[in-house]
Amino acid sequence: MNPLAVPRQQPDGRAKADDAPVQPIAIDASVGIGGYRNSLMDPLDRATSAILRFWAEHELTGVRIESSTWEELALLRGLLLTRGTEEQPLPQITGGGPTLVDTTPRSERDYWVGDSRSIAAAVETAVAHHTGWVNVRAQGTSVSRKIIEAAHARDLRVCYRGPWGGTDDLRSGDHIPSVADLIREGIEGPVEILHRWADAGSLGVDRARLIDARGVSVGTELLALRRSVFLREALEAPFLEELEPVLPHAAYIRQMKRPGGYLVGKRQLRQHAGLIEPTRDDAARAEDGWANLLLTVGQVPEPLIPATRSPQLTLLPGYSWREECSILRHAGVIDPQLKGATLFATGQ
């Protein structure tokens, strides 16, 4: 049993005999548990405490931590242990730990591995911390194959980002975090991913069906992808002020909504968050890719689990899951909130 799990209901949504009536399943397949501080004087637990509060307020019943540092995971566990019984119930939690990468890490939540010894050490650390999962983001398939084999040998499930060839080593119970990644062939940015969907959308349908037949689930992360490309839409996102304890630079999004603040806020986002508004031509082609992506989602909904990758600058934990489900319904996915129990299968 995963020691992070907070009992609330069984993974399939059935209540135990002595439980109150079951609430609708609300499982987010991709969440973060940390943010950052503008000042070292700010409380270390501010971001994680705020995220827990958001999960409770928006009544999530389950979450899978996409990746974290081990320190963030320890902080989360400490907060769970000190939580009062009178506080709002929290979701069942699985996952955590850094993403194993085969090239220079992007952040503290990445862990660089390359040879068999470093892979074995990383996998054994995941076992010791009882996360149940190993997260992989690979540029090539040679290292990812070794990581996946080592994880499976220790009965760990794998969450895989990388070239399609690496999915050959996945087995039933494993997970691909983003449906857009089904046609990814390299480490591409969000605009490039949508451009690829504009050119090869039908390939996504074929690959989604192959993955589903093998028992591999797929996260959605649609809203995170769209808002990272179409920044002007992000200005309309609600609750931006509530994100500031987690991601202080959310203030720049709000600044862009004020008279005369758009250019200043856009410059700050580019400098501090790497968000760049596409050109008009790039945006038009990205819209074509978005349309093909939604078409695929509607045609092959079976392996999909709502996933937000929150917190992001315009994605509030909990509330963003409801926004994600709205996009899925628009694409033709019926009752997306019923999916996700597979993340909490026996052995987690």
UniProtKB/TrEMBL annotation:
It comes from the Bacteria. Residues 1-20 are annotated as: Disordered. This is Uncharacterized protein. It comes from Arthrobacter parietis. The lineage of its organism: Bacteria, Bacillati, Actinomycetota, Actinomycetes, Micrococcales.
